[in-house]
From TrEMBL:
Its cofactor is pyridoxal 5'-phosphate. Keywords: Lyase, Pyridoxal phosphate. InterPro entries: Ala_racemase/Decarboxylase_C, De-COase2_CS, De-COase2_N, Orn/DAP/Arg_de-COase, Orn_de-COase, PLP-binding_barrel. Belongs to the Orn/Lys/Arg decarboxylase class-II family. This is Type III PLP-dependent enzyme. The lineage of its organism: Bacteria, Bacillati, Actinomycetota, Actinomycetes, Mycobacteriales. It holds the Pfam family Orn_Arg_deC_N. Residues 10-229 form the Orn/DAP/Arg decarboxylase 2 N-terminal domain. It comes from Nocardia callitridis. Gene3D superfamilies: Alanine racemase, Lyase, Ornithine Decarboxylase, Chain A, domain 1.
Amino acid sequence: MPTRGRVATRIRFAVKAAPIPEIIRVLDDEGAEFDVASVGEIELCLRQGVAAEKLSYGNPIKKAADIARAYALGVRGYAFDTEDDLLRIAEHAPGVGVECRFCATVAQSRTPFGMKFGCAPQETAPLLVRARDLGLTVLGPYFHVGSQQLDPAAWRTGIEEAGRVCAALAEQDIAVASVNVGGGLPIPYAGADAEAPAPAVIAAVIERAAVEFLPAAAGLVVEPGRALVGSAGTLHAEVVAVRTAPDGRRWVYLDVGRYNGLAETENEYIAYRFVTERDGDPVGDAVVAGPTCDGDDVLYQRTRVPLPTTLRAGDRIQILDTGAYTASYSSVSFNGFPPLTVDVSGPERK
Ligand SMILES: Cc1ncc(COP(=O)(O)O)c(C=O)c1O
């Protein structure tokens, strides 16, 4: 495989991480492309003035009617991971560019996709050949190492597998335009995630692997969500109550929980950092819970969360790095609690 210098890389923001008009407009001005998961996200981007050719319909789970609508709206890039979806794309979006998502054999990330998406690596090339034969434009292979992926080697493995796909396609006279290395770039949260590898570390791994395993003419697409917006948000919450449970553990109840913004605390996957007005006072471990009557609305009971022992109802508490996968995860009104509101007006409130 010929070696090369710096790899041409395009950034494609995963809109689902923060479907907020101001963010989309800023990233559009910066030259980003956009990964959209639904017709709703396509329309959101178009309303912000994003050109349709900068949109890629990256969700492999889509109805025929959604493909037809996306095509009518001008979207010309699609991801798929089954022949079934490929046939729907060929029928309702003729001639468009396609990426085939495969399930890279990588270490589990903090919020893994499991087996929900992606064909087997060895199915990728035959599916892309089929795409060519159906009159579609082959863009290339695509993988996502799982969100909040802490192991940079995951991208190396994915790129090595993508390289095999490129080689198999070359034998069929198909030149890969780009390899999509997905999102998954982590940000520093609490606990073990505080040591999350920096973007530059992962970029160096990606670049080395691309030089080693991919054809020189193939560009790269990186599709981050969390890494672009996670640290841009702070959730301003209030302590509703503090009590000692019958087992002796201290519980701190907040006015936000799993159903209004903190869905990623499911399985205690994402360990957010808290800042309180009483930081500096003595601390003790606490169970942290949301405000609803649902027994699952508990943010952390296995993860150690040290909080000031002086914390009281009415205290304000900030939850840091909540810019990704929060506001749009809010339920409409579970238990009557309103969804989160987003304030993009400027400096954080004190
Ligand atoms: C298709 C696709 N691309 C990119 C992303 C962004 O992932 P992350 O926020 O981990 O960077 C996601 C997240 O779910 C996704 O589903």
